[in-house]
Write a structure and sequence with these properties.
alpha/beta
Length: 248
């Protein structure tokens, strides 16, 4: 009796859209490979917040990954209303925020859900791979620095807001630092020092000083976020830059 062995192409097609379970730091995590959003939603149901543009006038959509830091589930709706909606929604793109980033997350688990989302979005929406922006607020900015370091060139730009960020190695992704002069926890002098250190390493970094702004909430940084978006659109997206595919 002849045994039929499926070809490698057939096996690959069977794996597409499926997920596997892996263990990270003793915890179980699902992973999505080659999926569309339907599979992503099934695997990560209830684990993220997603905003899609109501009227898409663009052929390709930008993607904004937002890491709010330790706002928690109860405070996230206000963060979304006061910071994300007025700061990003007008850009007519896809906004994604994984709930694991709303607290102190497992680094690899956070990285996996973000990359899984980007891969699923590529297969489901007309996204622009050259317009994927990572935005980190407070502790979320610290998360974002680590993510960009391990996935350089995946994002077209990084925006860190109100955070004691620190760059220890050169990062090729352009960085926009937004920091208030009245921040009680992270003094503006230290922010200047960190920016100069990053520049010394060869980073493409822009410092947006928010005069009079403090650490009392993200809402006060909306105008600086809008300005950073405009600079990214005019100074980075207008250039012809090739990015490497970082999908798993």
């Amino acid at each position: 009796m002849k045994t039929l062995i499926p070809s490698s192409k057939t096996i690959l097609s069977l794996l597409m859209g499926m997920f596997v379970t892996i263990t990270i730091a003793g915890k179980t995590h699902n992973r999505v490979f080659g999926s569309e959003m339907e599979t992503f939603n099934a695997v990560y149901k209830g684990e993220f917040d997603l905003i899609l543009p109501k009227n898409n006038q663009n052929e390709k959509l930008p993607v904004y990954i937002v890491l709010p830091g330790g706002v928690g589930t109860k405070k996230y709706p206000n963060f979304k209303k006061d910071f994300i909606i007025p700061g990003i929604e007008h850009m007519q793109g896809i906004v994604f925020s994984p709930k694991i980033s709303w607290k102190r997350p497992d680094k690899k688990a956070l990285e996996h859900i973000i990359i899984d989302f980007i891969n699923a979005a590529r297969n489901s929406y007309p996204i622009d791979d050259k317009k994927i922006v990572l935005i980190g607020y407070s502790n979320g900015a610290l998360q974002s620095i680590k993510l960009v370091k391990d996935n350089d060139h995946l994002f077209s730009a990084l925006i860190v807001v109100a955070s004691n960020f620190e760059v220890l190695d050169k990062i090729n992704t352009p960085i926009y630092v937004v920091h208030g002069t009245k921040d009680r926890y992270f003094p503006i002098k230290k922010a200047y020092k960190n920016v100069n250190t990053a520049k010394g390493l060869g980073c493409n970094i822009t410092f947006v000083v928010a005069e009079g702004k403090n650490d009392y909430g993200a809402a006060q940084y909306v105008s600086e976020l809008n300005d950073s978006m405009a600079q990214i659109e005019n100074n980075i997206w207008s250039q012809s830059v090739e990015y490497t595919d970082q999908s798993f």
